[in-house]
Amino acid sequence: MRFRYGLLVFDLVTITFVVVSSFFFGHPVSEALDLVFGGLILIEFCARLWISRAPLNELAHPLGIADVVVIVSFLAPLTGENFAFLRILRALRLLRSYQLVSRLRRDFPFFRRNEDAVFSVVHLCVFLLIATALVFASQYGRNPQISNYADALYFTVATVTTTGFGDIIVQGTTGRLLAVLIMIFGVSLFIRLAQTLFRPQKVQHECPECGLSRHDPDAVHCKHCGATINIPTEGME
User: Fold this and answer.
1) Which long-range contacts (CB under 8 A, 24 or more apart) does 183-188 make?
2) Measured distance CA(111)–CA(104) in Å, rounded
3) 153 burial class (0-12, 13-18, 19+ CB within 10 angstroms)?
4) What is the pTM of this model?
5) Where residue 188 falls among pLDDT bands split at 50, 70, 90?
């Protein structure tokens, strides 16, 4: 399980590097770190294929293809330096794995109490990062208003929140269509986040009798079947 935590941390570090390196395109240190991250991801990807029972299926999986694109974007940046953000998809996949979620529930009481809200925030952040990267990839070098990742993030957040300051706009039909998609999906994710923040708090714990998985934090019996449930708690505060 520590290995899974390590992979998650590595993915988050990689995503952070992708964001920060957008400010230093062409810098020797940035290019050297590109090779380091690309090499590490290539080693991890090859190891995963080696131990997989169906390596071809792993390679043909959409996330496997995304890994290949990420590796190419790091090791051969001139062919696609703007696509390294796809690494965030693997981080999301890892975070949603059953084993890691179960361990997070056990290790972190805050996560157990606020699981739905945490995942709503994660999904919104993932969407913002992917949308920002798409804006950056499609506008960088063509739109003088978007010269780094921060400019693209500013436009994305302003679009998602429907603030629309208008000081930064995307150019071309593709850019406008992308802005429309950002508004539609972004608002949906904001609504989902608001629902999880303001609805009555529940915890995830499967009833051994009927399988009901959402209960009040202080529940002793299942509301559906009346069976006794043993929800892990921290005791009286």
Assistant:
1) 183/159, 185/127, 185/131, 186/124, 186/127, 186/128, 186/131, 186/156, 186/159, 186/160, 186/161, 187/160, 187/162
2) 7
3) buried
4) 0.68
5) confident
Query: Residue 89: pLDDT above 60?
Result: yes
Shared domain for 3 and 102, answered yes or no, is: yes
Residues 205 and 194 in one domain: no
How many whole angstroms separate alpha carbon 173 and alpha carbon 26? Answer: 29
The rounded Cα 72 to chain-centroid distance in angstroms is 20
Last residue of a domain, one of 109, 133, 150: 109
Tokens of 189: 């994710």
pLDDT above 80 for 182: yes
Cα–Cα distance between 6 and 104 in angstroms, integer?
A: 13
Whether 8 and 96 map to the same domain: the answer is yes
- Alpha helices (H) along 114-233: 115-139, 149-160, 172-198
Domain count, the chain: 3
Please tell me whether residues 102 and 20 are part of one structural domain: yes
The 10s digit of each residue's pLDDT in 197-217 is: 776 677 777 888 888 887 777
